TrEMBL record:
CDD domains hit by this protein: HFD_archaea_histone-like
Protein localization: Chromosome; Cytoplasm
Matches recorded under Gene3D superfamilies: Histone, subunit A (1.10.20.10)
Keyword Repeat assigned: no
PANTHER family: ARCHAEAL HISTONE A
Gene Ontology, cellular component aspect: chromosome; cytoplasm
Name of the featured protein: Histone
Keywords annotated in UniProt: Chromosome, Cytoplasm, DNA-binding
UniProt GO molecular function: DNA binding; protein heterodimerization activity
Tagged with keyword Endoplasmic reticulum: no
Occurrences of domain Transcription factor CBF/NF-Y/archaeal histone (ranges): 2-65
Amino acid sequence: MAELPLAAVERVIRRAGAERVSKSAAEELSKVLEEKALEIASEANTLTEHAGRKTVRDEDIRLAIRKD
């Protein structure tokens, strides 16, 4: 089940310049974004644990993105 609202994903696509967005396009981008977000969150969690913390911080997210 998708976590990202399709309306929000459609707005992102429109901000990128699209005039119209099909439901299937929004669904596909939503899937891709969620997969990428899970990868980043997982890496950020690993960094958090390595630092001996339980709370994921913004710097963990930034470091996880750079490692990618």
